[in-house]
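Escalation from tier 1.

The customer reports that the assembly of four entities below gives different structure tokens on two consecutive runs. Tier 1 could not reproduce it. I'm attaching the input and our single run for tier 2 to review.
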Amino acid sequence: MVILGPNRYGKAETRVVRVTRHGDAHHIKDLNVSTALSGDMTEVHLSGDNSAVLPTDSQKNTVNAFAKRHGVGAIEDFALLLARHFVDSQPTVHHARVAIEEYAWERNGASGHSFVRSGRETRTCVAHYDGSHAWVVSGLRDLVVLNTTDSEFWGFVKDEYTTLPETRDRVLATAVNASWRHTGDGAGEWDCEWDKEYDTARQAMLAAFAGTYSLSLQQTLYAMGSRVLAECPGVCEVRLSLPNRHHFLVDLSPFGLANDGEVFFAADRPYGLIEGAVLREDAPDAGPAWE
Amino acid sequence: MVILGPNRYGKAETRVVRVTRHGDAHHIKDLNVSTALSGDMTEVHLSGDNSAVLPTDSQKNTVNAFAKRHGVGAIEDFALLLARHFVDSQPTVHHARVAIEEYAWERNGASGHSFVRSGRETRTCVAHYDGSHAWVVSGLRDLVVLNTTDSEFWGFVKDEYTTLPETRDRVLATAVNASWRHTGDGAGEWDCEWDKEYDTARQAMLAAFAGTYSLSLQQTLYAMGSRVLAECPGVCEVRLSLPNRHHFLVDLSPFGLANDGEVFFAADRPYGLIEGAVLREDAPDAGPAWE
Amino acid sequence: MVILGPNRYGKAETRVVRVTRHGDAHHIKDLNVSTALSGDMTEVHLSGDNSAVLPTDSQKNTVNAFAKRHGVGAIEDFALLLARHFVDSQPTVHHARVAIEEYAWERNGASGHSFVRSGRETRTCVAHYDGSHAWVVSGLRDLVVLNTTDSEFWGFVKDEYTTLPETRDRVLATAVNASWRHTGDGAGEWDCEWDKEYDTARQAMLAAFAGTYSLSLQQTLYAMGSRVLAECPGVCEVRLSLPNRHHFLVDLSPFGLANDGEVFFAADRPYGLIEGAVLREDAPDAGPAWE
Amino acid sequence: MVILGPNRYGKAETRVVRVTRHGDAHHIKDLNVSTALSGDMTEVHLSGDNSAVLPTDSQKNTVNAFAKRHGVGAIEDFALLLARHFVDSQPTVHHARVAIEEYAWERNGASGHSFVRSGRETRTCVAHYDGSHAWVVSGLRDLVVLNTTDSEFWGFVKDEYTTLPETRDRVLATAVNASWRHTGDGAGEWDCEWDKEYDTARQAMLAAFAGTYSLSLQQTLYAMGSRVLAECPGVCEVRLSLPNRHHFLVDLSPFGLANDGEVFFAADRPYGLIEGAVLREDAPDAGPAWE
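Tier 1 run:
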């Protein structure tokens, strides 16, 4: 006997740019919105009966229409607004997941209407709503950082396949992919200045990366996560995925040259990958937040 | 009080090519192997004490050494071999996850030593081992398929943001990303001809895609998943992620031309995304299989 | 005094899929078409006067309309048709360049309407037309090939920065990027079975790669190019760009293991890059063919 | 009779990171270096005789050794240094082309050893040297800019395939890919503050993009190129490739909403592509500079 398991459907990567004009001073929000709905969807899978299905095209239209009607402030608010709309307006939809990426722009000189893409990282959020509770996870990805010193790696397990020498000084580099879960009141009401908290969390991770004398990337990961928790009272859990972008010291001895931490080869693959969560002991159950 | 949550670390994307030579007839296996370990890793996060840490470099070395020592047959067997090795040989490692991608090659003409990359999809597997149990998920991604007819979409919910017209004939195209979980005996012993089952599962999905008169991509997804279950007795669950690669009929009426399903615009973004699981009612608990 | 130099403008990457239906047997052509026009375009650059500019949107419409009106056979014919149209119909357009990529599909089983993307390489062509002459270059990219033996590299220059050991047996792998220029009659009339010639050229390169005992990738490049010329009388020049995808023998000696050409690391970067042209001594002037 | 045409070979994408330490204040240069040599290379193509071939591996070693020995200042100087070295030290090498990409980093807070990748664009240069003359082209790519107003498009040619309405206000966005050729003295001596000139050229293009009331992207291109020439006396030619990243106004009328330049769809493909050169009337012959 075969049954339908967990499922969801939606419109991925709706690329919407919202312009706001205050006289000559324009503002832009540049988003990539993905919506996913679930609910009474057994019949559409079994027989193709679409009577419970709000088309993904309508979801895209809703994203665009809401961008006009409500404007776009913090992406977390926009994601929650959309998630609530789908569940509250459609009897067959019991759960909505809305994920948004935001791309940063800054002003091009003194012009009020000219902009330049800035920064290399992408701001992200995922909101869930199930009709009674909401969950919000904020984050960023591709924040690339590098320390030229204050990183060691030694004292590790040596098995028969270990050839790596211990080191007391190495380059440590990674592309930070981080997400942080907001505690909220569990019922979908949020009293959070999302943009301010984003800056605080981002800055906390940068400061922890710079300020941690690292004996392992795991230690740095934990320092970054706990710093976010220390500085963001409304956050209950941080998840980090840190690729260890190896910078290998180039052997220049065949050319009669010393290489005292001066010339490195930035390797592509393979790379170390360190993943971990740091959370408050009393963090509420995550529910579907991370899905 | 801040605590460490779930974590793992390892070497991602070790690109190993294994050549076997039987006289003039050579064989190649082209793999991308990612290992991830977890266990007694609290201290390394808190203080940078690496005494429980098998370096990711050693993991890479193990992949290479095992490719030589044991050869590489089905990727599922190689993944299990590695996963068991890490857990069984390292007291501090309690759980291993090994993910492998395999790239297909075929012979270049009659030559025994010349090969051409073939196919567009990538074969995948993920094996977990925790010291007593093992889990194996096989899969593929980027198997791109398209039907020029036998696809309709109508009878869906119309809300105030719905503008999509109903259609009785459309192009249906997707890039199949599928994974299937093997039942096994729960204890890490597997009696499965992995390669043969891969071919069966792949063919089942292709046949279901071609043979399903589709009223929705969800229906096609369910047909593909249940077909795999019908033809692969050792599989208990199939998960599919199907991007709906929209092919929009181009409006040629401004040029005095009809377009009776002849000229389509293959759009990039946004795209529908249909995700779902199909499983046996008596499927065993998945444990960490999908992580 | 500042002047305008060479320039062109057009619509890049129009993704058009053309379906042809013969009863239940359907056929598809999946193209990516880029058009670029030049001519009386000084004023638009200097003052923004668009009176000589056929919009890129109109170029896209033309691609779609022509796909319907004329059908799509060999991409070379479709490119020539478009190039001629733009020059012949627009007094301000004196030169057109049309580049097309074609993605291959094969039938999904016995179904007349279901297809699977096949092959890994992309077929390409570029056609130029200037009102009196036409030029056509055909090609392919990303045809990935590998020889497990019959490749040596020794006898090279050793300078003070040379550490590479000589080798009498290595893996040789590359992603073939090739283009071949057709002689034509210079006036835009072509008597070529493009599809048949494509198969011949592709097969010639594969055979030359497999059949050449290689002392350097340059030698293999020349063998591939000259084989195309030998088997394609209508081709006067072949240009190849061959990345040397290094497969490094992994040192397994620390683990007490020999590695007699069995385990390789497939490196990403850096890579060798060998580029060269092979042509008939009497090849006509290339004109703008390679631009 | 088949002959060998133009050819070159080298090591592409050597990823070298150079660290300089002045006490606690460290500096990093993050480069991607590609070298390509040509000269007496007929024999290696015809017979595989490598006696004229400096291995690509030695070229990579040279890049690394020179990064140590000479340090890395402006990428143009490093490229020239390498190009001269290969030609001057190897009798069989008559021409060298060295292309470098540089990735920008800024300090992570007040730390002297912690850095964050900054900016989205990549700085580039290409240097050629043939034993007596040198050529240098500097540039950047992926500088993404957008104007929310001051862009029109009307008065264009309307043919039978034109459906685009004229517009008096649109969003104009592009990813600037620009290269500028330096006049030099033709003999390989350069008296240029490369880094300062880079900032000037970049700023000139940004200012021209912001300050040009645009009637066509061609007009903006010309304004950007001529502004660089106006502000950089040592530059004789600018080449720009500007994809027109279409931002389409979303039709919200089905939802009873106006859309007065507020909600846009950022499309991927197809896109306009505007390419052009702006140069001084007395610019010296480009020679191989653009190859």
